């Protein structure tokens, strides 16, 4: 894992003290809310529906046990005993007091964490593949690239006031586990002539105008990564719409210019950027890469796992993924127990995960964009013991990528932007499909729920998506089918008129029933939908 | 009726204007009527409320109730964590 150098630590510590003074001045009446708001937002502190909300960055979703334990400490000491893991691989706390905020940031700084750039029109937390470094299918570990981009984008003076927020994802395999093409910039590491470079996709995103990012360049050598990224941002910073918030994201610029013209302008800027010498020497990327070297794997470990406990066998089949290293496995911890709140974890659960990270996963843990947790380096011999401890703590749900493994934004229960509640709908769906056998029979089915058009719950990219809207003061839910955030990325289509809270659950059941009756051998829900099209699903729903 | 609401500056808690101060219980809120803007300006300047605004409400047997679901959830607390609710008895969805 990357460790702060002296410079990293100094700038984070300095930011804590700067914010401490800003909060003091606000509390003392030396600043108005209008003056203070942009300052607190730069430190991840929102004012939400019920209280202040703090969003803490988890760079590319990777943490140590010590860092995870700190997240539990904050939940217990400063919040109401829990936190919410987000689709940006971050964590949010819902009940923060302004008078505590600087102390929380100081606590985070002791474990090399912060909340900088988790809000505002800047480059946000860089996200990545939760299996990075452990997956057999990657061309390289994407995290050194993500870390280089993190260092470049942190406090970048030119990109502090972009037209709108900016999200970057880096992956390194053909299988996209990070919704890469739904980011402002999506980077896929690829190999050419034995060299690793970056394929750039620019102009994706969700929100009210969902778009899949077109490919802008098929190969950027690693020594020119920063110049090219800077060129992409410069064209956006210059021509992105600042006059209309709803047209300010880079996806609108790329769409309006057309990918070819945007590419031409980027190439022109890139040619200029290369003359400035801003790229770090390859030695710097090598220095960063050394932090992400493989852990000290043991060899000769047993491959066989005792499956005699049927509940364990279910979990093993659903939540445990093949590792690149013999004798090891990747473990997914589902934060979607039946009746639970997707992405929420109590302080005790977070602290337990921290302990298990240190004991069983070579001191590394990941947050996924699907609001789950990953232990990336677990010996197969430890799986049963690990599962027992997870299950005892309510963390043993065996539903990865099944219909109950839903992404859901906080919705109107917590969010001041939301139009409808997401979580109660997720809970009702989870109850309706609680039977584990039924879930498995339905197979991979990614259901995603947003409480408003901002799409924090990724409803556009759900095989089944749900969008909550406000219809004359009453919550109403639109149903979408056919979206995907994976390598076969697509945007879902609205089925027709919306439903009430119970009606939407019934509609989903009609859709899944049709899938079961019409599917062909080996077809996922998404495959059947793509083969049949909307018509039969619409007939099943509306009669 | 018009209720005034906002957040406590230090704690961030949702608060409601009672006529003489601010309460965390919407049941203690009063109609601010035509004085709403003046009260908000005065109370904001004194830092007794942060990000204050007015909401429409109706008088009910159990006290004032905001008309919009968003404000009723603000007054109540998250409907999925009733253990954390301040005013859990508030009907969220109007009958």
Automatic annotation (TrEMBL), chain A:
<keyword id="KW-0004">4Fe-4S</keyword>
<dbReference type="GO" id="GO:0016491">
    <property type="term" value="F:oxidoreductase activity"/>
</dbReference>
<feature type="domain" description="Nitrite/sulphite reductase 4Fe-4S">
    <location>
        <begin position="404"/>
        <end position="541"/>
    </location>
</feature>
<protein>
    <submittedName>
        <fullName>Nitrite/sulfite reductase</fullName>
    </submittedName>
</protein>
<feature type="domain" description="Nitrite/Sulfite reductase ferredoxin-like">
    <location>
        <begin position="341"/>
        <end position="393"/>
    </location>
</feature>
<dbReference type="GO" id="GO:0051539">
    <property type="term" value="F:4 iron, 4 sulfur cluster binding"/>
</dbReference>
<keyword id="KW-0560">Oxidoreductase</keyword>
<dbReference type="InterPro" id="IPR045854">
    <property type="entry name" value="NO2/SO3_Rdtase_4Fe4S_sf"/>
</dbReference>
<keyword id="KW-0479">Metal-binding</keyword>
<dbReference type="InterPro" id="IPR005117">
    <property type="entry name" value="NiRdtase/SiRdtase_haem-b_fer"/>
</dbReference>
<feature type="domain" description="Nitrite/sulphite reductase 4Fe-4S">
    <location>
        <begin position="119"/>
        <end position="272"/>
    </location>
</feature>
<dbReference type="InterPro" id="IPR051329">
    <property type="entry name" value="NIR_SIR_4Fe-4S"/>
</dbReference>
<dbReference type="InterPro" id="IPR006067">
    <property type="entry name" value="NO2/SO3_Rdtase_4Fe4S_dom"/>
</dbReference>
<dbReference type="GO" id="GO:0046872">
    <property type="term" value="F:metal ion binding"/>
</dbReference>
<keyword id="KW-0408">Iron</keyword>
<keyword id="KW-0411">Iron-sulfur</keyword>
<keyword id="KW-0349">Heme</keyword>
<dbReference type="GO" id="GO:0020037">
    <property type="term" value="F:heme binding"/>
</dbReference>
<dbReference type="Pfam" id="PF03460">
    <property type="entry name" value="NIR_SIR_ferr"/>
</dbReference>
<dbReference type="InterPro" id="IPR036136">
    <property type="entry name" value="Nit/Sulf_reduc_fer-like_dom_sf"/>
</dbReference>
<feature type="domain" description="Nitrite/Sulfite reductase ferredoxin-like">
    <location>
        <begin position="52"/>
        <end position="109"/>
    </location>
</feature>
<dbReference type="Pfam" id="PF01077">
    <property type="entry name" value="NIR_SIR"/>
</dbReference>
Automatic annotation (TrEMBL), chain B:
<dbReference type="InterPro" id="IPR021270">
    <property type="entry name" value="DUF2849"/>
</dbReference>
<dbReference type="Pfam" id="PF11011">
    <property type="entry name" value="DUF2849"/>
</dbReference>
<protein>
    <submittedName>
        <fullName>DUF2849 domain-containing protein</fullName>
    </submittedName>
</protein>
